[in-house]
Every structure is written in C-alpha cells, then in structure tokens.
Amino acid sequence: MAETRSTVTSPAVPASASAQARLAAAASVLGVRRINGLLPRNRAGILAGRGLIASIMAAFGPTLPGTHVQAVRSGAVRGEWVRAAGVPHGDRAIYYVHGSGYVVCSARTHRGLASRLSRATGLPVFVLDYRLAPEHPFPAAADDVTAGYRWLLENGYEAADLVIGGDSAGCHLGLDLVLQNLGSGTPQPAGLFMFSPLMDLTLALAEQRDRRSPDPMAPARTGRRLIELYTRDEPESSPRLRLTLPPGAALPPLFVQASAGEMLSDDARHLRDMAAAAGVRCDLELWPGRIHVFQALPLLVPEAAPALRRTADFVASALAEANSVPRERVS
C-alpha cells in the first residue's frame, strides 16, 4: 500500500503499479542497470553515463510542444526558464534543482520534466544549471543553488511566491538551501517538493534495499562512486553533507514522492521521520513501482502524470498558505 500523509485530494495514489511500469522496471534491471554498473569512473565513463541518461530522458520524457525556453546567463548563475504553452511569466515561479549524483544531468536533460511541471502548475519553472563534479567538487553545486535562489529574490520574486522542487541529489541540495537560509536569515520559499530524494550520501540505506531488490536504474555502488566525485575529501559528518533538521526549525512544508521499490525509498522515509522529529510538516507519498524519478518518464511510467498533478496541488496550497499571512518584502 502507498504510505502517505498528504492532504491533497486528487488523483489518488494507486494501490499497485501499472503493467507498463512493472515491465519497464524489469527491462531496466536487465539493460540500464547493467550498463550503468559497467561504466568506469573516468572521463570516458562519465561522458558515456551523461549521454545515456540524456537519451533516456529525451526518449521517455520529451519536452512538450509549444514550450518556451529562455536561457539565463547572469554572473555565476546559469540555467533556463521553461514555460509550457500559454503559461505567462508571472510573479510566482518554481525553482527546480535537478539530480543525478551531482555528476550527470543538466537543465537541458530536465527540460521535459520542467515543461510538464509548468503545464500542471501554470507557473514558469527556472531550472538551475549548477556546476557538475568531478570538474567542480563540493561545495560548488550547493553554492550555485544558493546563488540561484538569491538571484531570483534579487530579480523581483518574493520568497513566498517561490516553490523549490528537485529530484534525487537535487533534493539534498534543495534541503541544504533552506537550512542555509535559517543561518543567514534569508526568507524561506513557500514550499519544497522532492522526487526520489537522496538524503544519505553514503548510500548505506540504499545499499541495504538494493541487496533485497536490485534497483532498475543503477547499483547502489555506482551511485556511491558518482557521489564521491562530488564529496571528495569532505568528511561524511560535514553538516552540509549529513543534513539534519534542528527541532522547531522554521522550514517550509515538504512534499515527497518516491517509488516504493526503488533504492532511495528508505531515504524518503528517513526524511519524513527526521522532519516529524523536528516538527516540520512533511507529506510522504510512496508510489507503487521501482523506477527512480518516475515523474520524469511519462512515456515509460503512466503514473508520472497523476503524480505531477498531486505535486501541482501541493504547489498551489503551499503558495496559498504562504500568501495568507503578512510578509516582509526583500529589498
């Protein structure tokens, strides 16, 4: 059964995975998982991995027709605005942080997902192109995510009009951002939604699950090797790697979706439990199936569309709640 504490009402989280999603997972174990497991951790292997994931994203999550894309190059901030057909460039937006182990993806690979998020929410989506490892190790990506958020605030957006989204490692970066906001006094966004969140950068939780049921996308050891290209010599106990939520932290509401059978499902549960202990609202949905970040692959996993509609419900409610109370304007 799906595990959920969400207050959104429709469509319902299904009780079982579709036949197409089950077939896709089985095929991926025999194909994508094996290829990813064999790629060496050198420049050629990294380039091959980047190409493989880009091809999968383009084939099974193409950009919607009529989508408007605007490149951003502003100081250290790189990325692109993505607006589905008919979506205006208004005063509210989604700030999206892509995943794939700090090494593989880009704003371009996630353009299809961003276009669907834009259509579902009616909002423009700014997808950050943060610097990738191994060329740029920790804390380059985290610093770029912070810079992107502050750039949005400096360019007319108020924090209460922004919702942050991310997948996989992008969720870790998004959570790091709101924790950094606590220390700096930077206003928090209205909410934070996460797809298949990576929380334990040692992948100890993921490895336990991967041994019980092989993840369709990649072995846990492959994911760990990617992450180590980013973390390098930084201690595992570093507070920006091993994220914790302080009790009573003034954080925005969190909305988490993951596949119940993927290797990061226990990371999602860990995040929910950590948030509950800190008194932070966190709605968790575990969708039947095994595909990591299934929301990005609608032609492969039919559940992607209803999952994005539920995400859009969260975005709308978070913005409404944040704008129901007086707020200070960022100068």
TrEMBL record:
InterPro entries: AB_hydrolase_3, AB_hydrolase_fold, GDXG_lipolytic_enzyme
Domain of life where this protein originates: Bacteria
Keyword Hydrolase among UniProt keywords: yes
GO molecular function annotation: triacylglycerol lipase activity
Record key words, sorted: Hydrolase
Record-annotated Alpha/beta hydrolase fold-3 domain positions: 95-295
The UniProt record lists the keyword Ubl conjugation: no
Entry-linked SUPFAM superfamilies: alpha/beta-Hydrolases (SSF53474)
Family, similarity comment: Belongs to the 'GDXG' lipolytic enzyme family.
Protein name (Swiss-Prot/TrEMBL): Acetyl esterase/lipase
Species, as recorded: Nocardia transvalensis
